[in-house]
Structures are given as C-alpha cells and as structure tokens.
C-alpha cells in the first residue's frame, strides 16, 4: 500500500535538497517525477503545477528540448504576456510559480 503523504514529503524533500545544492537539473527531475506521481493519483491541478516548476528548472538549465517534450506530453502552454501559465486537457490553469522555489 502506498503512503501518499510520505511519498509527497519525499518528492518535496528531493527538490529542496537539489535546490540547496544548486542542482537545478536534479530539482527539475524531482518536480517532473512528483508531477507524474500526482497525475497518477489524479491530483491534476497539482500535477500541472509541478510539471510547470520542472519546466522552469529545465529552462534555467538550458534543456529546451526537454521543456518542449514536457509541454507536449502534459499539454502545458505558454502565455508570453502573463508569463508561464499551464493549461491541461482538463481545463485547469495555474499561474507561474517563482523560479526554482519551493512555493
């Protein structure tokens, strides 16, 4: 049986440790995997938030092809006037989270 709370805490901790050590690519990976976990338990709005954070990290790291792949795979869009925004097939929208922060 999966302990969802413990799993969520572990993903958050992985991203925090990566950020504290300046490993933006590892932080992006932690956010991406957390997003996939959230999507698997049908927490779609939160999943979109973490996929967006992953895109922010990967953009800083310079992995633009990875950002494109995530956008396409998870139906994330970019609104140039409003900054990063996400939209899924489920119609959810989220504003851009601060770059590589835990917020």
Automatic annotation (TrEMBL):
UniProt organism field: Thalassiosira oceanica (Marine diatom)
Domain of life, per lineage: Eukaryota
InterPro entries assigned to the protein according to its UniProt record, in alphabetical order: Hybrid_Histidine_Kinase (IPR053159), TPR-like_helical_dom_sf (IPR011990)
SUPFAM superfamilies registered for this protein in UniProt: TPR-like
Full protein name: Uncharacterized protein
């Amino acid at each position: 049986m999966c302990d969802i709370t413990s799993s969520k805490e572990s993903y958050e901790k992985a991203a925090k440790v990566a950020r504290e050590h300046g490993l933006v690519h590892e932080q992006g990976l932690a956010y991406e995997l957390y997003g996939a976990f959230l999507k698997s338990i049908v927490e779609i709005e939160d999943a979109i938030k973490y996929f967006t954070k992953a895109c922010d990290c990967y953009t800083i790291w310079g992995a633009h092809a990875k950002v494109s792949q995530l956008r396409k795979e998870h139906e994330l869009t970019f609104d140039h006037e409003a900054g990063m925004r996400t939209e899924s097939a489920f119609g959810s929208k989220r504003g851009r989270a601060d770059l590589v922060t835990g917020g």
